[in-house]
Design a protein that fits this description.
The protein is mostly beta strands. It is 7% helix and 57% strand. It is built from 5 helices and 38 strands. The chain is globular, with a radius of gyration of 27 Å.
């Protein structure tokens, strides 16, 4: 009787074990299991999604009830996409992606493309690159991975130069939306981005005004943030560095059937430093929050909302005689909705993004009362339609309207009295990508801009890519422009009677002509590239000094 019971239990165990349905992952090179890889299942008929993470043995269950698409991703490996059936186990061998050629990028074309198939010169800094470098800020990782990039921080933000062009000629994006400059010279404070939420950074070299408008002259840097992949996830991190520099961050994420939610909060502070050789960083404290929510009521419809708050307070050194220090606050609100056709070839999206930037003086001897200097409002709205053919072409077309306003109270940067200045621009843009033959592709695009202040601007662009054997050749020519800022147009600033700074409302945009040619060679674990470029800028906006021999003011006037 005892042996019959044991036999029965053995049969039950075998039947149960045989019914387990798994996805198993191995490294193709050494057959080692791949733990903690991300698997996404999407049922074709119902649109229902499942998310799994492989175990330490490289195994994840197959939870689907209907035929589904599966995408398997793992840091440092090529992404696998396939079709799987319910109740069926499968084994996959994953290949290492030594040069990120399988990485999907979106910045160069506004549509998802493999990096190896993008005619526009693009550099990708992956999450693996970020972790390997141990960087603690976007600026650090950009310096380590982008050739020709140098930077320095000052009271006006991060001053950056790429191939000789400074921050005012570089367009910064976060998840495809413009990161508005709040400092003179176009400087951006990248510390407003919680670095722990960054998934990757895409850098497009050269003129890109055809797709992105003003400021996309030397490069476009798109910081793409993570999306949660598990039902519940979260983390906390902190670091302590020299000069009593402390950074702390808390994040939370949730991925449910139709809704994903992510939120983070961070605080950064430092005592700063003032070195004898002249390098200086003032004491400051930053606070920031970032929240995103995405709702997908059906497989072809998605709605995304985001909110980001940031405060930067820049203090004086203890020995300073200055009784006033600066406080800046920024609010960002955004929304995007997209609708795709049943075959996913046509996609229509509409978005609006709102930025509000406040600058205050903190009166230390008056109980830290706040005196507002000015506030800047920036609103951008856009509608874009993308159509991908079954054959060899793809088209992107859209309309866009941007509005910028500066309002002053006590700072008098627009004159002795409170004032408001504003400017808007409307845009039509399109881009067409065509594959002539296998390995030979081209992009032709352009943008027409009407600006209320300076009139019109036209920005055409042409890019070509040719693959032959292990070589890839890319070349392009394009124009770009930088619209004069509101400060450059309307500045009227009295610096305590010692000098005056005036703007020029008759300024026209700076125009750039960018030519580039590159060759890339890949063989096994070897990847080498050589590139050349020529960037010409005309109608450059600069300033000149007027010195008066009488008691009238000295002026610095943009021209």
């Amino acid at each position: 009787m005892r042996y019959r019971i044991l036999l029965f239990l053995l049969v039950v165990f075998q039947a149960t074990f045989s019914q387990s349905v798994n996805i198993t992952l191995y490294d193709r090179g050494n057959n080692a299991p791949l733990p903690f890889a991300n698997l996404c299942f999407e049922e074709i008929t119902t649109g229902k999604k499942y998310y799994r993470t492989s175990s330490e043995n490289g195994i994840a269950d197959n939870p689907i009830e209907n035929r589904a698409l599966i995408a398997i991703s793992f840091v440092g490996y090529k992404t696998i996409t396939d079709t799987v059936q319910p109740g069926v186990s499968k084994t996959y061998l994953m290949e290492q992606d030594l040069f990120n050629m399988e990485q999907v990028v979106v910045t160069g074309t506004r549509t998802p493309k493999r990096l190896a198939d993008v005619p526009v010169q693009t550099t990708v800094i992956t999450e693996a690159d970020i972790q390997k470098a141990g960087a603690v800020s976007p600026m650090e990782i950009l310096q380590d991975n982008i050739p020709g990039l140098v930077s320095s921080s000052n009271a006006m933000g991060n001053n950056m130069r790429i191939r000789g062009l400074n921050s005012r000629y570089i367009l910064f994006l976060v998840d495809g939306e413009r990161l508005v400059s709040e400092g003179a010279g176009g400087n951006i404070n990248l510390d407003q981005i919680d670095f722990n939420t960054v998934e990757r950074i895409e850098v497009v070299n050269g003129a890109a005004s055809a797709l992105y408008g003003s400021n996309a002259v030397g490069a476009v840097i798109n910081i793409i943030t993570k999306k949660p992949v598990h039902r519940f996830e979260g983390g906390i991190s902190t670091s302590l560095q020299s000069h009593n520099t402390n950074k702390a961050q808390l994040n939370f994420g949730s991925n449910l059937a139709k809704t994903t939610l992510s939120a983070s909060i961070f605080r950064n502070r430092t005592d700063g430093y003032d070195l004898p050789e002249g390098a200086m960083s003032k004491p400051h404290t930053d606070y920031g929050t970032d929240m995103k929510i995405s709702y997908k009521p059906s497989p072809n419809v998605s709605i995304d909302l985001n909110n980001r708050l940031f405060q930067h307070e820049l203090f004086n050194f203890p020995e300073s005689m200055n009784a006033v220090h600066r406080l800046e606050r920024k609010v960002t609100l955004g929304g995007n909705t997209s609708v795709s056709s049943a075959n996913a070839r046509n996609n229509l999206s509409a978005s609006i993004n709102f930025d509000k930037f406040y600058k205050y003086d903190v009166m230390e001897r008056k109980d830290d009362q706040l005196e507002k200097q000015n506030d800047i409002t920036y609103i951008s709205s856009r509608m874009v339609n993308t159509y991908s053919s079954e054959e060899r072409w793809e088209a992107v077309a859209g309309i866009e309207y941007n509005y910028e306003e500066i309002s002053t109270d006590s700072s008098k940067i627009l004159g002795p009295d409170p004032a408001v200045k504003r400017v808007g621009d409307g845009n039509i843009f399109a881009q067409y990508q065509y594959s002539f033959i296998e390995g030979f592709e081209g992009i032709l695009g352009g943008r027409f801009t009407y600006n209320e202040q300076f009139g019109t601007a036209l920005s055409p662009k042409l890019s070509l890519m040719f693959k032959t054997g292990k070589f890839v050749l890319r070349g392009g020519i394009g124009t770009a422009f930088r619209a004069p800022s509101l400060q450059e147009l309307f500045y009227n600033f009295n610096h305590n009677g010692s000098f005056w700074v005036y703007g020029n409302p008759n300024l026209i945009p700076e125009k750039g002509l960018y030519n580039s040619l590159s060759v890339e060679y890949t063989r096994g674990s070897l990847n080498a590239s050589l590139s050349g470029y020529l960037n010409q800028i005309r109608d450059k906006i600069t300033s000149y000094r007027v010195i008066s021999l009488w008691d009238s003011p000295t002026g610095i006037i943009p021209m």
